[in-house]
Amino acid sequence: MTTSVTINGRPCALRADPATPLLYVLRNELRLNGAKFGCGMGQCGACTVILDGKPVFSCVTPLGALEGRSVRTVEGLGSAERPGRLQAAFIKHQAAQCGYCIAGMLTRAQALLERNPHPTEREIRSHMEPNLCRCGTHHRILAAIREAARGDAA
Amino acid sequence: MRILSFARAAAAAGAVMAAALGGLYLWTRPAPLPAAVLPAPPSAAVLAAGARVVALGDCMVCHTAKDGAPYAGGYGLRTPFGTIYSTNITPDPVTGIGSWSAQAFRRALREGVARDGHLLYPAFPYIHYARMSDRDIELAYAYLMSRTPVRAEARRNELMFPLNFRPMLAFWNALYLRPGDARIPARQATPLERGRYLVDTLGHCASCHSGMNPLGGERHPAFQGGNIDGWDAPALTRLAAGSAPWRHEELVDYLRGGLSPAHGAAKGPMRPVTERLAQVPREDVEAIATYLMSIQADGGAAPQQQAQALAARTAALLPGDAGARLFEGACAGCHAAPAPMMRLAGRPGLARSSAVLGASPVNFVQTVLHGVPWEHGSAVYMPPFADTLSDAQVALLAAYIRTGIAGQPAWKDIATTSARVRKENQE
Questions:
Q1: Measured between CB atoms, which of A41, A54, A55 is closest to B341?
Q2: pTM of the full predicted structure?
Q3: Domain count, chain B
Q4: What number is the ipTM of this complex?
Q5: Under an 8 A CB cutoff, do B329 and A43 touch?
Q6: Is the pLDDT of residue B133 over 60?
Q7: Handedness of CA B426, B260, B325, A42 (dihedral sign)
Q8: What domains can you pick out in chain A, each with its CATH number?
Q9: Which residues of A touch B324 (CB under 8 A)?
């Protein structure tokens, strides 16, 4: 049995068991190692990806739920050579300390800016609330999102 | 022709009825009461006693908007008749109750009348507060009048015609308001008496747990279950029945802590209620549980073995089923029997979860779609799945958990329920 999913714009036929969480498929089969395993229970946000425009926890997203749907990971937002607008803002503000949460922070923020290009401070904070950073660089993360939000849509 | 004349007759009857009601209202319209100055700050003892009454009366739950100042109102209560916004009950003299005398406050609680004489909507549960003791009303007044005043104009209600015409409420009050009196003792002698007072009067549990008739009155007999804000409020007379009967101590834990290891967490509109009950002395919650256990329909627990047999099934996942695969990928990390969350934190097996055992799938669907959000200081959390699972997938999952894990008869129309809940929560 295969599941057809578009990942970062590329159609993929995935053979993993439909009960497999998307995070494992991304990391182990597709070698997209941006999304991280943090808690495995949808509590920390390190595994966040964009599913049909909305941020979701890929650690509790069964592959079987994804037939015909579209997933974007941090790798889809830009590359080391050509970072996307939001990624460039994160680099500029040195928003990563250990970096473990950053792929999740980027994808969650990206989903917000695509739906709402100029969010208020309150909207940014409430949208980012599910994602945790244990190093405590929240202020740099917020500054980077604010900067990306000041321009046109990222 | 006949239809036309019938319509005309109906219109005429309607006009006569409206005129009669209007006349009745003008004749009986309550008088405005004079403005008063703020009472002197109460003693620490009165303040503490007042805080207890206000917590037991759940005033804050409705009179505080999301992210709003405490007691400043603006919380929207969605009713079948439209949305009613709670008012500001901080002692601000212009937009709150700062100019209300103790007499005006007592009249509002006993008769549903504002200081200026206008009738209050029964979303404010004065039909229950009417039976509060004089002493408790005084304590609540002293407590509320010593809160920080907040200037916050009440939001306009969004009610359908003719319910936006307040004098209509005189008719409603004639049907449903039973006058209170001061004979209620301020201290109830036994836990059972105290519990009845807290459930029927201050806690106004029937407002949600009895359901509403088409006129917006509470259904009788009381506590047979209702709906509030898109959630099912379960029947309180069948807590000891079914495959996961509640025991007294479990109710106390649930009401005080928002979580019963045997039945699940308080969710939706019940959650803030448990947050208030966490602030009152344990004896009050014990009394509530004592009274609730005394109104059980069959008076006894269902056979224990049945519950145990069902709990054992959580271990078995049926392979091959699409709902089972979704469960494995989305839920099993926390809710399967071998999951560390189950072993370490004593989570209830889903076979005993109140949301899974409910007569309708509404509470299950609400929980899956929106999870249990982090709240200040709460240890209970579940991530939302609204953006992960489609309505059809929610239905597959529900069917698997309801029948495969809990061994209950299948729910109907789960996908439709899921679509409706999703839509309502966006509004």
A1: A41
A2: 0.87
A3: 3
A4: 0.94
A5: no
A6: yes
A7: positive
A8: 3-76 (3.10.20.30), 78-150 (1.10.150.120)
A9: 19
